[in-house]
Every structure is written in structure tokens, then in C-alpha cells.
Automatic annotation (TrEMBL):
Belongs to the cytochrome P450 family. It comes from Iris pallida. The chain crosses the membrane at residues 6-30. Signal peptide: none annotated. This is Cytochrome P450 71A9-like. PANTHER family: CYTOCHROME P450 71A9-LIKE ISOFORM X1, CYTOCHROME P450 FAMILY 71 PROTEIN. Heme binds at residue 456. Keywords: Heme, Iron, Membrane, Metal-binding, Monooxygenase, Oxidoreductase, Transmembrane, Transmembrane helix. One of its GO terms (molecular function) is oxidoreductase activity, acting on paired donors, with incorporation or reduction of molecular oxygen. Its cofactor is heme. It comes from the Eukaryota. It holds the Pfam family p450.
Amino acid sequence: MAYTSLLSFLLLLPLLYLPLYLLLPLYLLLGRNKKKNKPNLPPGPINLPIVGSLHRLGLLPHRSLFALSQKHGPLMYLKLGTVPAVIASSADTARAFLKTHDLDCCSRPPLTSLDRLSYGFNDIAFAPYGGQWRELRKVCIIELFSSKKVLSFRPIRQEEVDRMVGSIASQTDAVDLSEELMSLANHITCRQGSNLRTYVKMTAIGKRYHVAGEGSRVKRILAETQALFMGFFFEDYFPLLGWLDRLTGMRARLERNFSELDGFYQEVIDEHRDPAWRREDDRAEDAIDALLNIQKSGGSNITDEHIKAVLMNIFIAGSDTSSASVEWTMAELMRHPSVMKKAQDEVRSVAGKKGKVVEGDLDRLQYLKCVLKEVFRVHPIAPLLVQRETIQHCRVDGYDIPAKTRLLVNTFSIGRDARVWERPEEFDPERFVDSNIDIRGHDFELIPFGAGRRICPGMGVGILVVELALANLLYWFDWELPEETTKEDIDMSEAPGITVHRKSHLRLVAKRV
Ligand code: HEM
């Protein structure tokens, strides 16, 4: 449901709660006795009856919450509909939740779309904290994200980056860099995740899945999945009004997307079970092979539903995060030509006359790493991380945080905290040149991959893809803006989403060096 129609629903909400108003006097009477045990909640904006502070979030909640935190402080309490939530907006409060109280706060809220699309939370990213999540995450870290496994996919990453460079080099007009990067990330994810022969068929050859005029079927299905993750379900904010999701059509939309995704996953799994497909060529063992092998050996209780749910995580969490990171970096480099030149000089001197940048070069690209840190500070890709939910009561900064409170860590605010960063609004990678701050979840000033028990398990591979793609773009091409545009014209506005992309595609002219 679009946010405009959401507004009209919010206006009607008080009527739907009419029966509850009749009970108000009773509630007030009981409330008086309860006051003695009232928790000491963090400060925050005034919550309206029923809608709470939901109306304040807007399309870019990280920005609205940042503005609110300027007024109410780095630890805020508010209500999202009828659901209590706390917002952590500083490195210290993030540390308190993600380190000191990590165990109290490391569950996920059971949101409607996530429930369905993760097969009842049989995945890693959206599952509640518990034995099943721990087991699956452990298996996936060993089988999918270990250094050995990540290394085994090195040829795939290089091949796909080379393919992107070839595609850009063949274009004479301005290149749609956003499209190129999305396609790169999709191909890498699909090949690492599932050696998707079907996907390749869809994008390149196959008629079976190809939907004329609207690109591949999978691309469309996954775009709808992303939209549903962002979609508004009454159930998530007004549990008593969950039935309205049927009236708005959101339930039907969710079911449609689920059954399309399920059909697709099943096909991919069946293909991997097919002895003919298994015999085929020298393909590297992918994520599905690894999970099917564990299933076969009976070593773990992995069902087809777990495999499908993990596939969903890989597709959703693994592709657009990397592409968005490179997009924002290229846009900032175009706006800051001296930074672009310094980064290009470094890349070209390290890779020399080799003809390309390879993963073995990346450790020596120290300035490029500073550029990326600065991009993650200013444009965190998942600015509110992934929502958490507290498991039990805890106390932070002297305030009570009750169990079952939603926790949003606003890394966008943390990156703009003037007590930590000098000139926070300025894009300046030099600030990291002599700094020890790293992005791997230990320094709470900069946590683009989260921290604690729920830290991104794909961080290693994500960083590799981003650095390799970026380094090759800088090595191979000099970049110019399309005719009659200046760096001041570059649109830096953000599109709404769990992961934040640029609103408009980045179009640049690539000149082969
Ligand atoms: C630049 C690339 C990436 C960024 C910026 C990123 C960022 C994040 C963030 C912020 C979280 C939430 C952490 C938290 O709740 O504390 C997360 C979780 C997750 N990410 Fe990533 N990610 C990236 C790449 C990847 C890749 C390549 C994969 C897999 C192929 C992946 C898989 C996951 C999964 C499964 C989770 C959920 C972990 C859990 O809840 O236990 N991510 N990621």
C-alpha cells in the first residue's frame, strides 16, 4: 500500500478503535494503581493516541528519526502505532544495545511479510533469536561464508567484474552505472548462491521465464519481494487491526509473491537434485549444494524450507547492498574530483600494467578503503540496520527498556554525530587516513554491517565485491559527467527502502584509459 493511502487509513483509525474508547474510564482507574510501578522510559516525542509516532517517520525514517534525536537525545522512546520502540542514535547507545546488552536485544520482530517470505522464520536474517537461528547461522557461516568458501568463489567475482568492464567499455554514450552495478551484484549473488542455470536462462537465453518487455521474471519477483518488505501491514503496528491487511489487498499480494518465489526456489532445488545437473561440468559447489549435502548427511535438521529461506536472505541481503555501496561511492567521487584522482592514482600504481585489478591487490589499496569508510559513514546502506526486538527487560543509561520493545539503531545519525566527527556533513576520506576506526563491528562509531550476534555474516564477501568492482572502475576508466551537467547537478536524493539506493540512476561517461 502506498504511503499516501496509508495516511487516509491513519485518519480513519480512531473510529476503528471506538469500542476501546468506551473502556477508557476503566483503564484510567486501573492505570492510577499501576503508576507506582511505571517504568522509567527514555525521553521521546509525544505519542498520539493509537498512531503513536508513526506519522512522523515519513518515507525516509532514518532522516526523520535523526531530526527527532537532535531534539530528544541519543536514546529515544516512541510508539510505532501501538508498538513500543527505542531508537539508538549514538555510538555509546549502539554499544550499550549491541554489545553490553546484545543477548537481551538480539531477536527480530515477527513482521508479517518477513514471516511469510521466510517460511515462518526458517531463515537467518529475520528469525527470532533461539536454537534454530543459532544452528542455521553456524552452518551457513561454515558452509557459505568461511574464508575458504569465499576464496573458492574468487574466479566468479573476477569473471563478473571483467564482464561489467567489457560491457561499459562497449558503450559510447553515457553508461547507466546503476544498472551495470545491479546486474553485476545479481550475477555474483546468483552464481555463488545457487549456480543459477535457470537465472542465466532467464536473463540471457531462456524463453521459459522471460517476460517480454519487463526483464527477467526473477528480477521482477525479487523487486516485488523488496517492495513487500517495505510495504505497510496493519498487523505490524496495530495487531488488533491485522484483518485490514486483507481489505487493502496486501495479504493477497504477499501470497502471490510467496507462491511465485516458492515455485522458483523449488525449481532451483530440483535442478540441483537432478543427477544430470550434478554431473555437469566443473562448477564450484554453491550454497544450495552445500545445504543439500548437509541435509543428505542427516547432520542437521535442514529442510527444503530452510534452504529456500536462506536463498531468500542471500538474494535480498546480498545483491543490492553491494551495488548501492558502489553507486554512492562513484557519485561522491564525481562530486569530489581531487578524491577521485587520489583514489585512481593509488589503484593504477598498485595494479600497474597488469591490465586489471585482482583481489590480491585489494589489501594495498589503503586510500580506497578510507573512501569506502567515508561512504559508509555518510551513506550507510542499511541505515537502521535490521530491526531488532528485546527479549527481556534491560536498563540502558538508567532507563528501562521493556521486553518486546522494537530496537532501531540509526547508523545514519551515528555518522552525523558532531561529538564524534568533525565537520560531519563534509565528505572527506582523509579523516580515516590515520585512524584505527574499522567497519567490522568493533568500533561503534561506524557499523555499516551491524554488530554483535546479528552482525552481517556476508560482510567479508560484501566488502570484496565492493572493493573489486570499485577498484576496476577506477583503474579502467576516467569518468565524466554527461554533456551540459556539472557536479552540482548530481542528484543525491535517496529512494525509500530497507537498503537505501539513489533515487535516480547514476549516468556517467566512461573514457577508456
Ligand atoms: C556491502 C554489502 C553489505 C552490507 C552493507 C550489509 C549490511 C548488513 C546489515 C546492516 C545487517 C544487519 C545487522 C544487524 O542487525 O546488526 C546485515 C545482516 C545480514 N546480512 Fe548483510 N550486508 C552486506 C552484504 C551481505 C551479503 C553479500 C550477504 C550474503 C550473501 C549478506 C547476508 C546477511 C544476512 C544473512 C544477515 C542477517 C544476519 C542475522 O540476522 O543473523 N549481507 N547485513
